[in-house]
Amino acid sequence: MCNTAVMIMGLAMTPAIIAVAGGLLLGYRKQVLKMRMEAAPERQQVQSLMETAQRMEQRVGYLERVLDNEAPGWRGRSEAI
Question: pTM for the full model?
Fold first, then answer.
């Protein structure tokens, strides 16, 4: 085939290639959006668990300070058990 025929065939196939590529891109975008929507509740749950863990850490710190004041040496006794 001559170069002109190859160019004409390439130009003729261009809309089909664009349509296929566009379809693939739209399908990919749809899949990504679906995954993001499914992940949103998981992110909210992780955020909630992180907040709960931070509150618990603060409470444990507070209780340790109280024990340090009220029962000095409690740490050594708990490690011996």
Answer: 0.48
